[in-house]
Amino acid sequence: MNDTSMRAEVARRSKVMIDRPQEPAEVALYWIKYVIRHQGAYHLRCPAVTMTWYELYNVDVWATVVVLLVIISYVSVRLIISLCSWLFSKSKAKTD
């Protein structure tokens, strides 16, 4: 509380916050009138209000990504297993 640098910083920030083209009450009044003029201003509402939960969280996109990753993983594992079995069967055939 007695630190002069803190007081100077508080005064600077206060000056920045107070310097506005309009008073907060005028801004609030403008937006209230705007909503009344445009019958609720539905065009300003967030689209998430009307979306279902699976649209909102992109469940279809995530499900597609997961399925593709599972398929790619499965094919990769099968390919590695068959490649290893082919390599080891060739090395045993050479030794026999």
Automatic annotation (TrEMBL):
Molecular function terms, GO-annotated: UDP-glycosyltransferase activity
Entry-linked InterPro entries: UDP_glucos_trans
Entry keyword set: Membrane, Transferase, Transmembrane, Transmembrane helix
Positions of transmembrane segments: 61-88
Pfam family, one: UDPGT
Protein name per UniProt: Uncharacterized protein
The organism's taxonomic lineage, starting at the top: Eukaryota, Metazoa, Ecdysozoa, Arthropoda, Crustacea
